[in-house]
Amino acid sequence: MAFDWMKIPYALLTLFIVFNFGMLLNALIQKIGARVGRRYGVSIWQNYADLIKNYGLRSSITHGVMYYLGPVFRLTGGVGLLLFVPTIYGSEMFSNLSFAGDLILALYFVFFGTLGMALGAAESGHPHAAIGITRGLSQVTAAELPFALAVFSVALQYQTFSITDIVAAQQGGFTSWTLFTNPLAVAAAMLSFLGSMMRPPFDVVLAPQEIPIGPPTEYHSSYLALMQTNRAIFPIAKIVLYMSLFFGGAASWPIFFLKVFAIYMVSVLVGVSFPRFRVEQSIRWFLIWAVPLGVLSIVLV
Amino acid sequence: MKVELENRIVSGLEGVGAEPPRTCELVPAPAVLPAAYRETVKAQPRAELERRTVKGPDGVEFEVEPLRDYYCEAGPTVMPAAYLKIVEDLFNWARSRSIWILGFGTGCGAIEMRPLMTPRFDAYRFGIQWRPTPRQANLFVISGYLSVKTLKRAIRCYEQMQNPKYVVGLGSCTINGGMYWDSYNTIKRLDDYLPVDVYIAGCMPRPEALLQGFEDLKKLIRAGKAEGANQYAERFEWYKSNQKQIIHDWDMPDYNW
Fold it and tell me: What is the 3-state secondary structure (H, E, C) of A41-59?
């Protein structure tokens, strides 16, 4: 099989654009959240300053190999997810490394970072990290169920596991988006989306007011900076996946920015409106409201 | 030994006519507790700190020595700045733009920090936010009086923070003891125990004064003068002897990160 080497710089360019977009978007979202609380909010460059500062700290300590690999795995999850999902539909430059069965791989990458984090945080030996990871894994697993069901429903609907083909099938006006052709699957997936964006009501895992911030309690300096880098990339990569599967993908960068922002805002709107769930409440909520929707969508397809 | 204090700032005294001292003699800090009382609080042998054999849940027996197992024995070292000045300047800019405060209210002055998170003062717009763990924090605000008991925790928290780290003394109590001058269980001069970058004068200083103090700290950081962590490493012996002079039940390693 011939491999087009030009794909690598193109993929890096995608990564660069998405990273900067993610940094600015996160600050914008923080600002919107602050305005809801009638605060002025952080500056739009705040995330860059935080990131440079954390990379620039002079000392750091380690708790062992897994502790070091935790943030690396997490970043791999974000970057991997982004690289194997075609970012811009129909563009040779920004189709990244997508291939026929990439949907399965993407599902795996969504979970990969959390697992890596679990191993790393466990080795830090901090009790708060252990509790945080237990909560995080339970909640992510519960949130992942309806998403997986929705993904299989969509794959059944279009008879393919290739994201590019799924996007291609949704072209021709917004009425052919999965949102309208398979609304139950989209509903289940969007409920799951709320659970995985680390915003209220599902942010008990690392909310500072809970056990001191959970899994990253012991992480600092460059370790934390790696995780912050992932913080900019992973949500966008995930939204790209959602956008491709359910909202018709994006054929150009402006459409991409617009759709990603709109999808992100769903979780923000819910987040600023509702108080935080405890873990057992959120798991119950996913199992009662989201999973039946996913099952139903598969049955109907 | 004389020490230059040119990079110590007392925020809030501008225009009052008062000038903070520019040099200071490195003398041992005065003991706070009366000698008779000191005897009664000597470190007592405690079962949970002794070396012992523990049987794990999987049946394997292993030795535990609490004072050694959980902590590092290595002392702090002086960490050089980045090799290129332009890189260090970039880092200093980022450090001044992103100050993460350790969320640990050590005294009554902590009540003046809370309003900074509210819409009225909103410190977040200056790049200031609170972190719940010392690992991620850069700034330790000693908020008001510091009792000997709290000093022990403050030292541990300070040593767990990563270089470069800053200390702000909030309120008169951290400068000279303030209204607790003749108290039997509070320290008088914070600078004897931890390297302070900025004092914010007042009892209590208002949230606006805190913001002004943080702005002064930012100027120090930008100028590359906020090197408290390195000073702590340089004069480690002196700081430790001062700390041990008033903490009599010293039941932790000398240096614990």
Answer: CCCCCHHHHHHHHHHHCCC
- Is there a contact between B119 and A37 if contact means CB atoms under 8 Å apart? yes
Tell me how many domains chain B contains. Answer: 1
pLDDT in tens, A41-87: 899 999 999 999 999 999 888 888 888 888 999 899 999 888 888 88
| Domain contains B46 | no
Q: Tell whether B42 is within 8 A of chain A (Cβ).
A: no
Query: Does the N-terminal peptide bond of residue B205 adopt cis geometry, omega within 30 degrees of 0?
Result: no
Mark yes or no for CB contact B127/A224 under 8 Å. Answer: no
At B253, phi and psi to the nearest 5? -65, 160
**A58 lies in some domain:** yes
Residue A174 domain boundaries: 7-300
Asked whether residue B99 carries a pLDDT value surpassing 90, the answer given is yes
Which domain does B198 fall in, by range?
51-246
User: Which chain A residue lies closest to B230 (C-alpha atoms)?
Assistant: A58
- The structure tokens listed for B245 are 């002079």
Query: A60 at the B interface (CB within 8 A)?
Result: yes
In this complex, is the C-beta atom of A42 within 8 Å of any C-beta atom belonging to chain B? yes
The count of structural domains within chain A is: 1
pTM: 0.86
Q: Is residue B257 part of a domain?
A: no
For residue A1, being part of any structural domain is answered with no
What percentage of chain A has pLDDT greater than the value 90? 45
